[in-house]
Write a structure and sequence with these properties.
The chain contains 16 helices and 22 strands. The chain is α/β, with parallel strands linked by helices. The strands form four sheets. The protein has a six-stranded parallel sheet, with helices on both faces. It has a six-stranded parallel sheet with strand order 14-13-12-15-16-17, sandwiched between helices. It is globular. The model is unreliable at 448-454 (pLDDT under 50).
């Protein structure tokens, strides 16, 4: 497919990484020559310097012949204009990043009026994942996900104590027709491998034939398992802080929202009902003590700076806060922040990239997907002959550590795969993937590689 990406910032770069591993022709547009020069050194893409809001520029660079255009500049208005212009000259599908809360109540009208096929909002996406984690601890609806004859159940391992202390090889002996697809440990999703040991406080995602999984689900599911969350402190009054404060307050939770910019505080206080907006510097420990951080059930650090979010999350954890969640945008900080005891670190760009890839792949390839704790994704797809994974033993696929093929649905047969199993054309495949390894998954969908352009 021919795909154009307008805006080579953080989201644009994520998309380039994810899409260049497959058989796509990628054009990247930006008005910053230094950014494009850097991209051209690392990726086999066509880079074009210019302003995407100019119709003549889009026409000259063949955007009318593209299958997809993704507008992800720093400006919502620019993204809407670029997507609309691209659509008007023949681009088949257009996607725009739109983040401003003032647009959210009118998104259906905006999409219809401006002929935009799909919109994404990183701040709203991460808000939804944080909300689900805090308000209802189960990631899956009722703790279970089913598709055809395959099912996935999520449960606290204490409810099935025979698994505690076992590695994956031992689990396979205890549950021979099932597979541990993932483990949630201290808020972090882990894709397990042979010697991974299940610990007492883990949550387990178990895949198998639907009837067998239903039998386990009846034993382990804690009905009505909602949180007793009452008080939440959000540090950072940007778009994520705004969305999250509004959503938690609507649920009836007492929210304190801390922001250091006075003008922003005024805006927040006029837009948010039932939220206590505090103007102050959260890096000042005395200020946090005065605002009774010790009494909070949860703290979310969502400033615009990863380092500040890391520092504040560690401080909150040191205070004994039960649930501490950080928003980050730098992949290198994620493992660091979790190794220091913070419950969850989420990257909104990972989440949005997964949504865009799902939309691009469409129903012809990926027939369903489910996001897990904002860190991983369950994908179901129909195998075709142009995929790298066809007709090879799974042990020879060299899958990244963050990717696991969990089930193969072949006719009336459900196969929980082992290393010698193969995927054939027409199989429905269930795959578990960390969002950080989405690029590798995209690369599995084709045998062909892009020939390098001069």
């Amino acid at each position: 497919m021919k795909i154009a990406i307008v805006g080579a910032g953080k989201l644009g770069s994520k998309l380039i990484t994810a899409l260049t591993g497959s058989n796509h022709s990628i054009t990247v547009m930006d008005d910053r020559s230094e950014v494009l020069n850097k991209i051209s050194q690392f990726y086999d893409v066509m880079t074009v310097l210019g302003n995407g809001k100019q119709l003549s520029f889009l026409k000259e660079n063949g955007i009318g012949d593209c299958d997809f255009l993704i507008a992800c500049t720093d400006s919502d208005e620019a993204n809407i204009v670029i997507a609309t212009l691209a659509k008007s000259i023949g681009c088949k599908k257009v996607i725009a990043r739109v983040r401003d809360p003032e647009y959210m109540n009118h998104m259906d009208s905006i999409r219809e009026y401006f002929s935009i096929d799909y919109t994404v909002n990183p701040d709203l996406s991460i808000t939804n994942e944080i909300y689900k984690y805090l308000v209802e601890k189960y990631t899956l609806t009722n703790g279970i996900f089913t598709s055809g004859k395959v099912a996935l159940v999520q449960f606290k391992v204490k409810k099935y104590r025979q698994l505690i202390g076992l590695n994956m090889i031992e689990v396979a002996k205890l549950l021979p027709h099932m597979l541990v697809a993932a483990i949630s440990r201290n808020g972090k999703i882990i894709i397990p491998h042979g010697q991974t040991i299940i610990e007492e406080n883990d949550y387990v995602y178990l895949v198998g034939e639907r009837q067998q999984i239903n039998d386990i689900h009846r034993k382990v599911y804690e009905r009505g398992k909602y949180t007793n969350l009452q008080k939440v402190m959000i540090i950072g009054g940007g778009k994520t802080g705004f969305y999250l404060a509004s959503k938690l307050a609507d649920f009836g939770i007492s929210v304190k929202l801390i922001e250091k910019d006075k003008q922003r505080c005024y805006y927040l206080s006029t837009q948010l009902d039932d939220v206590m907006v505090l103007c102050g510097d959260a890096t000042d420990g005395t200020f946090l003590d005065e605002e009774n951080i010790d009494d909070m059930d949860a703290v979310v650090t969502a400033t615009g700076f990863d380092e500040e979010n890391l520092l504040l999350a560690l401080l909150a954890k040191h205070k004994g806060i039960e649930d501490v969640i950080s928003k980050i945008s730098h992949d290198g900080y994620k493992d660091l922040i979790e190794s220091m005891g913070v419950d969850m670190a989420l990257n909104p760009l990972d989440i949005v990239t997964s949504r865009i890839l799902m939309y691009i792949q469409g129903s012809k390839r990926v027939i369903s997907s489910l996001l897990i704790q904002g860190q991983a994704e369950i994908l179901e797809f129909i195998a075709s002959n142009d995929m790298k994974i066809i007709n090879k033993p799974l042990k020879e696929l060299s899958l990244p550590d963050g990717v696991l093929i969990t089930a193969i649905h072949r006719g009336d047969q459900v196969i929980i795969p082992r290393g010698d199993d193969r995927i054939f054309e027409g199989d429905k495949v269930t795959l578990f993937c960390l969002l950080t390894d989405l690029a590798a998954v995209e690369g599995l969908f084709t045998k062909k590689l892009i020939t390098r352009r001069s």
